[in-house]
């Protein structure tokens, strides 16, 4: 058991680290040369451009001394922007993400006050207030926790009461928060201007009818079953191979540009390379000619491939994006069952075009079930047995193994100092690498599962990551032994024994978790704001690759908030808080500081740095809510186990009520709020439709519909680049006024113009477009008669 | 352990009992006097009327000797009707119910063959076939079961293989059956002529808007959000109190009739009664005048109450039946979310009018959640702790208690013979009464839960009953001690220990279950076909009450199939079969005989006796499927436990695969077939709508819509009587041709005519009807323009 003094030392070290990071950040961010790293969001939104200075030095270094004095002013700045502005500026996902931290403060703030006023005095003594006495500070931290209370003591009822209070307070805050976020979501969706995804439904598992194309099948089906609302559709092309070739071409183009630049600088020495593997051997040729030839070859390949995509019926996936002439029609189609066979014609809302994970659009229904099974088994195995391969690698990666691989380093390795360092370092290395790779592995698993949108992929990854953290970080730290050993012992213990085993260990691990909070939370957040890795990458890229403004944008690569990692880590703090609120309340202030600090940091980052790849309108909130409720229930069960070891058996009925109530609360919230996140109410759809009719009745939305859901690589290579970077090109927004430059009908769709700008010429699938426009116009005509009908009614 | 001989004796006794019942049935059913008991379905469908005989004796007794010779010919008769005819005759619910027994035969028939060919030889010896030797028959039954196999024997892999085979075979049959039933359901729904429930949606939780009536709110909402499809609506009146008064009046009327009859027979002695409590004391008055006065009072009360219902806004519940002009419109409304607030405007398909449980239509959303919680806790308590109050009652109802209550019987009770009889009888009495009351208790619980249709109530009761049987009959028979003790020990045992504890006991309990199958299954089924209780009740009623043909129909009271009891009991046999298929295969023939015999019996009853109260189109099938799959998984876990005691530890990985696969199969089936039972595909709706348009485009469906969902008591007392008896009056069927006798618009709706027939005059809620017809006609006009639009398209 660590004393309070030990924790003080640890806190000091971490606070110093955090401050060092903060000062570094404060100094670096005011240097103009780092501007694009720390304010990338503003560059992307176009509010900031490269600063122009006369002085060459002032382009790189900030020479204005005054700004150095106010180096901590980012904190008030981060608070200045109001929530509605943040939603406007960065989207609802970011705003809702920030609210999780606020929720933490709201739940644990009052909890900390009550716990400090009631529980710590009770724990320390017979409830008398010699709480502020000098002795206390140097005492064991356990004196402040429930461990200090004697067995069968009636004082334990104070803990039970506080648990009740805490549960009710948490549920109240969770309910309020869910309510607020749900209405924020509805308002956000309502305030959005017309966007294609509001009118579009993704249809999967279109049946293959022999002798008819997918496009034709879809058209017939929806003309028949949604006759008055169906507008047009876009079939999904399997362009994965094409996209791979395009990516390859981009790489070659990049090398070509680099070589040309080199040649411009040194015209006397034309760059050469060898034709063999990786340019290591083979005939020596001029680089520029070599790459030009390669690119030409690829271009030919691209043309045939493009032709194939448009003409080979096998390249058309049994899925389609079906657009409707009103939100009502789309809402109806997304929520109803279409076909007599429930696994055909599956409809769901189409994700935003930039949110789509194109590769997964063609997975058949049976395969999806199998994939889900396989992946859930794989996740289970990963969580409980990941230690086996790592232990195996560790056994290989020891000093002897190293000496065999690099025998010439033997004298160095044999040095005592280095040897002990390596012995301490090597075994951990495999684990570190694994943990670093973990989010990627989990994301791959989610991709195999077959979700079709990045937002869903990230939510699914977050769930898996949380499960891993819960078992291996939280329970793993409390119980002894590895996860497999725990699993083994849990299988052979009685169900009532499990919470008891863990419950007993909980108060003893408080210091560990306090340290964890300081290292992972405090210092980690300070590291987050410093953005060391992106900073270095940006400067490296700037030096080596950047030639145009466009390249600079690419080099910034601001990324989105890392939801799959950030949300589960954050929820681990909720779990710790809930578990220790009653057991060892001294942990709460550390968590509160984390929540407050992280809130500042992320608010700053959301405003200045991150650029969200997609906007799901806080679709992750139900998961957040569910997992916080689960944390509450875990804490209740563990407290029950802990109290049963205190022989307060008569308290069990009192405590058993809590999980039941919490579960009921969860179920109620689920039916009360979740539909707002899964479905789109018809009332809302009708209102928005009516608004549109009133304000801009003449806009022809068809051209936007038909193109928005084309695979970006089939539009133009530039668009594809932007798509891969996750930058919104506003393609999915339907303007209020028709832009005069964009013709609205026939085969001259806007995309053909964009193509002419500079990227390689690609064939346009004219046939489809023409057919779609014809269909669409018929529908549109019908729509206006329908609308008149409604108005006259 | 019973020997095979013991079981032979038991089988003989039960077979004799069953045969006695069967012969009694065969003799009784051909007596004309019992005709209405054994062929009630035909009387209700109108295919059979009271037989007319010249001879007074032949009206009561069958004198044709020939018919006595062929007294077992009901069996082939029961098979003669083909399945489509049964569906036509008795509905899909009955046909699907019969298929469960066939499914049992299909699953366990081949399983029995394989088990007998493979497992019994393996169990008996080293796999050698001295299986048919004479010795065997007299041996212990355990010699035939897995108990006979030595520990760690490799023969256990034969059992594992058979378990695999059995699981795959069962899943294959289940899948095929689900497929068949799902398509039967779709065909059935498609073949149905127009019925009101196809066009109607039940809307619950209509918000109360101050200053506006519910009717007005509903009208505005649907006119706005389903403008082109909304037709009319029927608000729900709280007529529960009114119905109570009507029931009271019916009782009085009955007594009045009885007294009048008495007076007619004995005009010299007018019947009298006392005015006090139960007619036991007070002033003596003439019975006829007394009842006439009482009825007059009630009639006045009814008039005011009826007036109140129609005029008091508080009597209008926040729910409504909303009708649409097409199945498409109704399907859309039933499947989508209407309001921004997910707990308002909840829509779902309206049940058939005769299926509605009117009392539960007004429960608000929050109350529903609480009710669900309370009832699930209550069911848990009931299942695990029901023994406590019963033990308490038992402790009271002993001989001493009896002697205190009836001291004058003391000498009789003290007789040794009677004493020992009572001692054996009394303690069991409380339990017997409880078990007899149980289905009623569970049904009441389901009603409190707040389901709005009888079909759902019965499914929900069936689930509860199955849970009770699983814990108290199946597990209770295997494990020792009461359910509470088991719960206690399970909580303190490790999760792997539980299947082991039960698994070990399983082979030992085989003889018990064989006896159970013979008593509950064989003899029970024979009792079912005899219908002793309805037979006695019918003759009692015929003697005492019956005056008109209508009364005779009432006295028949054929009832429906008792789904809440029949389905769970039946599924218990699936569970036993699955568990013992591998462990003690000799049990299988007994189950097969049960399934075959029960199939005959129920087929006969379905054709000749039962009159289903409602038609849910096999809506219970997903539950049946789920519980059979659950039985499979239970059997797999128990086999795993059993094998682990055989120290065949290396078989665990092999067996752990099975539950996982079974669960996946279940999930797949759920998503593959369940939507067919919960939703109504738009494709189907459009097809049916188009058919209607083609065949009978001129029918005005509005009058039927508006009345079908009026509380039956508000229509006329006669209808209410029929409703309470569960007899379909075909009110919900929309005829193809308009009947010339029924005026279709204005306030002269068909119901007002029926009212004049003889039941007390009731006020008609003319205002509402008029308003509805006006609304409806507007809509209808719009509908035809819409249809033209579609046809022209």
TrEMBL record, chains A, B:
Residue span(s) of domain CSC1/OSCA1-like N-terminal transmembrane: 7-177
InterPro entries: Csc1-like, CSC1/OSCA1-like_7TM, CSC1/OSCA1-like_cyt, CSC1/OSCA1-like_N
Sorted UniProt keywords: Calcium, Ion channel, Ion transport, Membrane, Transmembrane, Transmembrane helix, Transport
Domain CSC1/OSCA1-like 7TM region: 371-643
Domain CSC1/OSCA1-like cytosolic as annotated: residue spans: 198-360
Annotated family: Belongs to the CSC1 (TC 1.A.17) family.
Protein name, as recorded: Calcium-dependent channel, 7TM region, putative phosphate
């Amino acid at each position: 058991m660590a004393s309070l003094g030990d924790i003080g030392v640890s806190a000091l070290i971490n606070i110093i680290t955090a401050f060092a990071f903060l000062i570094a950040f404060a100094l670096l961010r005011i240097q103009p040369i780092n501007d694009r790293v720390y304010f990338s969001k503003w560059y992307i939104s176009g509010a900031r451009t490269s600063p122009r200075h006369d002085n060459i030095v002032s382009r790189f270094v900030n020479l204005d001394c005054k700004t150095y004095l106010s180096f901590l002013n980012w904190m008030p700045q981060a608070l200045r922007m109001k929530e509605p502005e943040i939603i406007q500026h960065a989207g609802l996902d970011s705003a809702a993400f920030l609210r999780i931290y606020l929720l933490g403060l709201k739940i644990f703030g009052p909890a900390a006050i009550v716990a400090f006023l009631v529980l710590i005095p009770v724990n320390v003594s017979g409830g008398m207030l010699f709480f502020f006495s000098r002795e206390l500070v140097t005492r064991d931290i356990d004196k402040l926790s429930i461990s200090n209370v004697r067995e069968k003591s009636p004082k334990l009822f104070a803990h039970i009461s506080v648990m009740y209070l805490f549960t009710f307070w948490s549920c109240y805050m969770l309910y309020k928060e869910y309510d607020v976020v749900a209405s924020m979501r509805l308002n956000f969706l309502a305030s959005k201007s017309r966007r294609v995804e509001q009118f579009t439904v993704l249809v999967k598992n279109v049946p293959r009818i022999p002798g008819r194309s997918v496009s034709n099948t879809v058209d017939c089906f929806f003309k028949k079953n949604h006759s008055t609302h169906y507008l047009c559709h876009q079939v999904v092309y399997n362009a994965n191979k094409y996209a791979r070739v395009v990516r390859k071409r981009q790489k070659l183009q990049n090398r070509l540009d680099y070589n040309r630049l080199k040649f411009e600088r040194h015209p006397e020495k034309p760059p050469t390379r060898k034709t063999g593997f990786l340019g290591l051997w083979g005939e020596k040729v001029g680089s520029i000619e070599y790459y030009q030839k390669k690119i030409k070859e690829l271009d030919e390949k691209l043309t045939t491939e493009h032709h194939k995509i448009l003409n080979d019926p096998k390249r058309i996936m049994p899925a389609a994006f079906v657009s409707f002439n009103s939100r009502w029609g789309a809402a109806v189609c997304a929520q109803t069952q279409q076909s007599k066979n429930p696994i055909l014609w599956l409809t769901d809302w189409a994700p935003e075009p930039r949110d789509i994970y194109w590769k997964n659009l063609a997975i058949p229904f049976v395969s999806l079930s199998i994939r889900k099974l396989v992946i859930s088994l794989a996740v289970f195995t990963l969580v409980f047995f990941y230690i086996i391969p790592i232990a195996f690698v560790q056994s290989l990666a020891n000093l002897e193994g190293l000496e065999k691989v690099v025998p010439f380093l033997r004298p160095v390795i044999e040095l005592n100092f280095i040897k002990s360092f390596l012995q301490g370092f090597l075994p951990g290395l495999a684990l570190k690498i694994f943990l670093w790779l973990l989010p990627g592995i989990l994301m791959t698993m989610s991709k195999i599962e077959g979700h079709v949108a990045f937002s869903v992929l990230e939510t699914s990854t977050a769930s898996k990551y949380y499960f891993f953290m819960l078992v291996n970080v939280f329970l793993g730290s409390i119980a002894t032994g590895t996860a497999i050993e725990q699993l083994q012992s849990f299988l052979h213990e009685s169900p009532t024994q499990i919470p008891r085993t863990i419950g007993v260990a909980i108060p003893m691990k408080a210091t560990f978790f306090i340290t964890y909070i300081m290292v992972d939370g405090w210092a980690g957040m300070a590291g987050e704001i410093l953005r060391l890795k992106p900073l270095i990458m940006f400067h490296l890229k700037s030096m080596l690759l950047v030639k145009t403004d466009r390249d600079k944008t690419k080099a910034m690569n601001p990324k989105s908030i890392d939801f799959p990692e950030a949300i589960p880590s954050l929820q681990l703090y909720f779990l710790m808080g809930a578990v220790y609120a009653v057991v060892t309340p001294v942990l709460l202030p550390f968590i509160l500081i984390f929540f407050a600090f992280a809130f500042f940091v992320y608010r700053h980052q959301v405003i200045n740095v991150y650029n969200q790849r997609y906007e799901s309108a806080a679709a992750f909130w139900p998961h957040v809510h569910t997992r916080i409720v689960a944390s509450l229930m875990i804490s209740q069960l563990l407290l029950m186990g802990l109290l049963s070891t205190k022989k307060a058996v008569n308290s069990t009925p009192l405590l058993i009520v809590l999980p039941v109530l919490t579960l009921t609360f969860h179920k109620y919230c689920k039916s009360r709020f979740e539909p707002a996140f899964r479905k789109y109410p018809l009332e809302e759809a009708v209102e928005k439709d009516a608004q549109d009719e009133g304000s801009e009745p003449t806009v022809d939305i068809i051209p936007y519909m038909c193109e928005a859901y084309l695979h970006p690589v089939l539009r133009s290579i530039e668009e594809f680049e932007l798509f891969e970077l996750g930058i919104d090109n506003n393609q999915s927004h339907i303007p209020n006024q028709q832009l005069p430059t964009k013709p609205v009908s026939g085969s001259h769709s806007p995309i053909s113009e964009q193509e002419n700008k500079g990227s390689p010429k690609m064939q346009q699938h004219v046939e489809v477009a023409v057919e779609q426009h014809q269909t669409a116009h018929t529908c549109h005509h019908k729509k206006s008669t329908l609308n008149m009908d409604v108005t006259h009614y």
